[in-house]
Task: structure prediction
Amino acid sequence: MEIYIIIGVVAVLGIFVIATYNGFVKLRNAVEEAFSTMDVYLKKRYDLIPNLVETVKGYAAHEAGTLEKVVEARKMASSATTIEGKIAGENMLSGALKSLFAVAEAYPDLKANTNFLDLQQQLQKTEDDIANARKYYNAVVKEFNTKIEVFPSNLLAGLFRFGRKPLFEVADEGERERVEVKFS
Result:
């Protein structure tokens, strides 16, 4: 009788270990898939930026510093090899793009240019897609990180070397501040 109890306990533990491990693998794959989806939209944005910069160059030749920052930020973000590097590069690129659009506001001819407007609309749609992909990525990462930290699966996470994944967060504290709108 005792042997059956021992076999039963071992079987339950075995099933628990297998189910937990498989859950970690499924979540890790979901995190990778979510990041890859976001990466597709980021690549699309990288492809749009040179066209946008060239269009702005024609109208705002003396704004070279802003244009160089956008190009440099694009290069840094697209060449990042780690998730942390990609997050830092993307935050830098978002700030540079805001500067580029601020420059564009000073040039009425540029704002009326159909090529610029089309590129701006494509970029805005891509930014919306990126925002949605970031939300999905962060949701999957949250689920993965939670499973790593809760008992008893945290014991197996350490045993099988499953580690936390970084969330895609806003790095620039200025972006979190309240925007003041004034009508004159």
Observations:
- The CA atoms of residues 4 and 10 lie 10 Å apart.
- The chain is about 80% helix and 0% strand.
- The radius of gyration is 23 Å.
